[in-house]
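In response to reviewer comment 3 from the previous cycle, which asked for concrete evidence that the modeling workflow produces usable outputs, we include below a single protein chain processed end to end. The sequence was submitted unchanged, and the resulting structure tokens are shown without manual editing.
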Amino acid sequence: MNRKTNKTAPLLRLLTRNETGVITNPIIDEEFKQGVIYVRTPKVEEPEKPQAVEINIISELIGEWLPQTIKRFNGCDCAVCRAEITVAALNEIPPKYVRISEETDFDGIKALKEELRPKVISTLVKLVLRNHNDHRKIS
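The workflow returned the following structure tokens.
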């Protein structure tokens, strides 16, 4: 039949090897629990920092000043004419790329835009006046 023995406590002491002689159950032990929780917790990846982006200052200036130039000189404001003038301006003025990142000095970019603005505006005026497509007369 079944015999009862008192071997459980000495066996646990051998398995747990506690320095103080106190029997500790690893499942109840807090350090063990925290380790299991840490291992089972899914790792949350930190989002990547956006890398530096290069922009063409000339392209931005053309986009900014083209509508005003067309309006001022009564040019055709259809999508086709805007596209043709934009392409011609981008071909005529050499690009000026600037790298933008988190620590970019935007005052320097603003000063560069102010320096390049007269050249862009004069080119746009010349191209708007040279563009003879006036689609408003077609009806």
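Strands lie at 53-56, 97-100. We consider this sufficient to address the reviewer's concern, and the full set will be provided in the supplementary archive.
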